Amino acid sequence: MTKLLFPPFIDRHVAQNVTEADWEQALNLWKSNLSILLKLPDHEFAKHLIENESLRTFIETFLKIRADFQELLILERTAKSTEMPLDKKVLLVLLRCSQPKLDIINLIQGKSLMDALYKLKFLSVPLLLDFLVNYGKSNFDHAREFFDNLILLVPSVIQDFESFSGIIIDHIKSLKQKIEEAKANNEVDLQNHALESYKKYILQMIDVAITLDCLFSISKVVASIYSNLPGSGEDQSLLKVVKSFYEFTLPSISNTMSPENTKEFARILNILKHALVSLIYHMIEASYFSPVGFTVEVGDNSIFKESDKKLTNHAQIQATLDRMNDVLFWIIEQSILEKPVLSFVDAPLILDLEIEFNLSAKLTRIKDEVLNGYPFGAKHKTLTF
Question: Which of 136, 145, 207, 278 has its CA 20 to 30 A from that of 71?
Fold first, then answer.
């Protein structure tokens, strides 16, 4: 087997004692080795992924560092990246790993290359989330192809995401509590310690929100798992936790800001709010809109089109719409709608969902085309297939 050594990826902006010459040498080595890897026959390619630990470590470190960089691009609006050739080559490697045709290769560690990599604990939830942050927006179709193939070849990964939901919810609740503690402990000194604390926790929440938004936009299966009814308990309801953070925690930060600090925080709060609204929408779409035959166009939320996959059983469609009705009414009933508000400033979640995704128009189309004009929750509806 061709020997290929992959040094771990590093962030050259923070790594110490790394000269420009060192960086160029490492970059050329990564690019050339990835090119060689991609040209290998399937069996040798697969053996490298299984037996070459340096290759797996490189991919893990690359995805992690680049995921942090992608979020920095959103926050700082910086531009060019000298690692773009590596971005493409790593994506090609992972796409090739996920191809069902590799399932015919006889691998001791698993039924397929993806199964073998899963058993090696390479295809972990954190790595998959880093993958989605890197490629979920810029290479949507390829990212969805990879994820669809992953679920096909390794169905148990769904249970991993389900188990991970508790970690995510606990993390959001922890950030919420830390923000509240920072506010309580720094009522007198808001301009110093509390200000930095707020920023640190908000940036951590942006990390969570962007990651979940990428995940839910790529995988409707995972998004629907995370979309539990509000009545299932606060600890298990991502919707409930996010809504509370959106409508109570974030306004409490804004209310403590002095005029000179308001502008600085307004931008990062706006980024966070858009990511939170988007992830909640994708949960709603995956759980309720998609099963009855509708989805938004990738890159254009205003285009609400028919989807290929949908339920055909009358009772299942009725049950899906009834659950949607319950969830949306719960959101509305738990929202303060009587006072004047500004969108993405102090508006409740349901209003920002309406502004960003034109929720009412989508619901009207479902009512007209699926329920033949009957209102949601009406009995004796005649459903259209």
Answer: 145
